[in-house]
UniProtKB/TrEMBL annotation:
<keyword id="KW-0456">Lyase</keyword>
<dbReference type="InterPro" id="IPR026260">
    <property type="entry name" value="Thr_Synthase_bac/arc"/>
</dbReference>
<dbReference type="Pfam" id="PF00291">
    <property type="entry name" value="PALP"/>
</dbReference>
<dbReference type="GO" id="GO:0003941">
    <property type="term" value="F:L-serine ammonia-lyase activity"/>
</dbReference>
<dbReference type="InterPro" id="IPR036052">
    <property type="entry name" value="TrpB-like_PALP_sf"/>
</dbReference>
<dbReference type="InterPro" id="IPR050147">
    <property type="entry name" value="Ser/Thr_Dehydratase"/>
</dbReference>
<feature type="binding site">
    <location>
        <position position="394"/>
    </location>
    <ligand>
        <name>pyridoxal 5'-phosphate</name>
    </ligand>
</feature>
<comment type="similarity">
    <text>Belongs to the threonine synthase family.</text>
</comment>
<dbReference type="GO" id="GO:0009088">
    <property type="term" value="P:threonine biosynthetic process"/>
</dbReference>
<dbReference type="GO" id="GO:0009097">
    <property type="term" value="P:isoleucine biosynthetic process"/>
</dbReference>
<protein>
    <recommendedName>
        <fullName>Threonine synthase</fullName>
        <ecNumber>4.2.3.1</ecNumber>
    </recommendedName>
</protein>
<dbReference type="GO" id="GO:0006565">
    <property type="term" value="P:L-serine catabolic process"/>
</dbReference>
<comment type="function">
    <text>Catalyzes the gamma-elimination of phosphate from L-phosphohomoserine and the beta-addition of water to produce L-threonine.</text>
</comment>
<keyword id="KW-0028">Amino-acid biosynthesis</keyword>
<feature type="domain" description="Tryptophan synthase beta chain-like PALP">
    <location>
        <begin position="93"/>
        <end position="395"/>
    </location>
</feature>
<dbReference type="InterPro" id="IPR001926">
    <property type="entry name" value="TrpB-like_PALP"/>
</dbReference>
<dbReference type="GO" id="GO:0006567">
    <property type="term" value="P:L-threonine catabolic process"/>
</dbReference>
């Protein structure tokens, strides 16, 4: 769409908005400069990131635990905390995913109060990105965009393509060319224009910034980023509500750009601010893959800047070498007494298997990273066995099957005869299940 038309449609859309909104403006996280609500994401004065601000005193009078609990069974029960004006947000059933009280994984790790927030079953595309995209596309529509887009490591591409299809928006998605088949097919099925860029995510992102400037599309994680990122707060809200309107002692979450991590923090604090939960010190710990760990490195070395890296890891969804919110994530981990750890690709695969074998949850590589870091933090005494700990599982293993191929054995092929079954059964019992799988690998 031409810029002029886009501005006109934005104005029209503005007039159609419901007048009762709880969000005010955009504010620079660095210098505090304020901007009207529009499709921009960096401060013109200092290039700092922009964030949505809210009228918290107005919010206090609008929301109660009861009003939230009687709302939709989706992220939109927290609508007043999200930067959308419409009474009809795009609701594809995103959010309110299970918070599972862990028995077997907890026992295996020696924890007494471990919960798993399972966004591997989020709707519609099985990752936490459905949250941020539902918010971003609702806002995109309000701002008058008819074409939406994203730079993605896969999950965001799936969410943007699916939810744009549902909302009838034109969609262009950009991904690195070497992504897993599940992520590629998981976008193509919704018929977006899918561009596989020869380069890594950071290169895709740079290209998309240029395209955003030239074409004036609504890029969910570029010019719509202030609205998009707010969707991750719902991962904080839901956990607080599901714990019986209480905050946990410790959370462990994966880090790529660092946005998710900082927004869970913002979500907890907003609930405290409006009196929905009691204030409490929550420790924030983050997880990265060793092959792409710029945030973990900055944290461990006590740096106040992020040194970008060239990613090389099987955890492709979190392979961001130059993370936009990395420094804010390190600040949160430091001030809350948390940690940021990294794990090897082998540990990531073991993390995926551990979660599957103990809890029946098949997570993708980002989740394997998070479980492996959780284990590392427990083993090094950085998580106390009594702490109420929530580990965030943000994506589904069916999308990254390549990562575990060759590590999980194979089906035992038998003839359709009882004696064939019994021979294989005997052999598998003699060897033991694990050894048997190793023979097959
Ligand atoms: C499954 C999954 N988990 C976690 C993340 C990390 O999110 P963020 O970039 O907000 O740190 C991503 C993408 O970046 C992802 O796809
Ligand atoms: N992991 C993301 C990458 C981009 O997300 P951002 O919020 O860090 O900009 C994806 O799933 O594509």
């Amino acid at each position: 769409m031409h810029k002029k038309i886009q501005i006109m449609t934005q104005v029209i859309a503005k007039h159609n908005q419901s007048p009762i909104t709880t969000f005010n403006n955009l504010k620079c996280k660095e210098c505090g400069a304020e901007y009207e609500l529009q499709a921009i994401h960096v401060c013109e004065l200092c290039f700092g990131p922009l964030e949505v601000t809210y009228d918290y005193s107005g919010l206090c009078s609008q929301v109660t635990r009861e009003s939230i609990a009687s709302g939709p069974n989706s992220i939109w029960r927290y609508r007043q905390f999200l930067p959308v004006a419409s009474d009809h947000p795009i609701d594809v059933g995103t959010g309110m995913t299970p918070l599972v009280f862990s028995q077997r994984l907890a026992r295996r790790l020696g924890l007494k109060n471990l919960y798993i927030k399972n966004d591997a079953v989020n709707m519609p595309t099985l990752s936490f990105k459905d949250r941020v995209v539902s918010v971003a596309l609702t806002r995109a529509r309000e701002l008058g965009f008819t074409t939406v887009s994203c730079a993605s490591t896969g999950n965001l591409a799936n969410s943007t393509a699916a939810i744009a299809a549902h909302a009838g928006l034109d969609c262009y998605v950009f991904i690195p060319a070497d992504l897993e088949a599940g992520k590629v097919i998981g976008s193509l099925i919704y018929s977006p224009t899918l561009m596989a860029v020869e380069g890594n995510y950071d290169q895709v992102n740079r290209l998309c910034s240029e395209i955003a400037n030239t074409y004036g599309w609504g890029f969910v994680n570029i010019n719509l980023r202030p609205y998009y990122s707010e969707g991750s707060k719902t991962l904080g809200f839901e956990v607080a509500e599901q714990l019986g309107w209480k905050l946990p002692d410790h959370i462990v979450a994966p880090l790529a750009s660092g946005s998710l991590f900082t927004k869970i923090y913002k979500g907890f604090h907003e609930f405290v601010k409006v009196g929905l939960v009691e204030d409490k010190a929550v420790r924030f710990s983050g997880a990265q893959a060793e092959g792409c760990s710029p945030i973990a490195q900055a944290f461990k070395r006590g740096m106040d800047f992020i040194q970008p890296v060239k990613p090389k890891t099987i955890a492709k969804s979190i392979a961001i070498g130059n993370p936009a919110d990395g420094i804010y994530a390190t600040e949160i981990a430091r001030k809350t007494g948390g940690n940021i750890e990294s794990v090897t690709d082998q540990e990531i695969i073991e993390g995926m298997k551990l979660l599957a074998e103990t809890e029946g949850i098949f997570t993708e590589t980002a989740g394997g990273t998070t479980i492996a870091v959780l284990k590392k933090l427990v083993e090094s005494g950085k998580i106390d066995s009594e702490e109420t700990t929530v580990v965030y599982i943000t994506g589904n293993g069916l999308k990254t099957q390549e990562a575990v191929q060759g590590y999980i054995g194979e089906a035992l092929t038998i003839e359709a005869k009882l004696d064939s079954f019994e021979r294989k059964l005997e052999r598998s019992r003699t060897l033991g299940r694990l050894e048997w799988q190793q023979v097959l690998v």
